[in-house]
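I hope you will forgive my troubling you with a question about protein structure. You will find the record immediately after this paragraph.
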Amino acid sequence: MDPKQEKWDTTWLLFAQMMAERHSKCASKSVACVIVKDEKPISIGINGTPSQHVNCNEIFLKQHGVFYKSINENVLESDTTIHNGEVFYRCNNQQEHHEWSKQHEIHAEINALGKLAADSTSARHATAYVTHSPCHACSLALIASKIDRVVYTTGYEYGDGLNLMRQSGIEVVHLPLTEQYFLEKILDKGL
């Protein structure tokens, strides 16, 4: 990979990661998508519920890989945790968050593309920088938008759209931003 391109890819992925960590309201995964065209960001999308709706992290809490729910319905009474002064009950069904998310949350890629559509801005020939690999539905939306590249840092367990994008001519780049990567770059002064 061209060193200049890798530097830009790393920069935009770091920006996406920062946006996800600071602004996502999902209890499970903080995801962001930054769409860049002609070296300028043209849209940013964060995963979460639509504006004015209840956020995931107001209902669910994830600690040590286990989901808890603030609402005491269909949960185990014996296993609770306190977070910010609120009691959360361990969920009987650990897939409950995933099911809730599918019904209520919008993925980061869809949010970013939706903002572009609202402004009549084209994503054609742009690059999408995503913290997690796109799911099937988001991959279809990225293909339809005529985006040229998708760069992601972390694999998503439901991210089955990578081959679909490749088959459609989109360049897909996996650029893991691990702690070791940062140490090597800082010591190498590559950043």
Remarks:
- Helices lie at 3-23, 96-104, 108-118, 136-144, 162-167, 179-188.
- The beta strands are 32-37, 40-46, 60-63, 66-69, 75-83, 86-91, 127-132, 149-154, 171-174.
- The chain has two domains: 1-47+105-185, 54-99.
- The two ends are 15 Å apart (CA to CA).
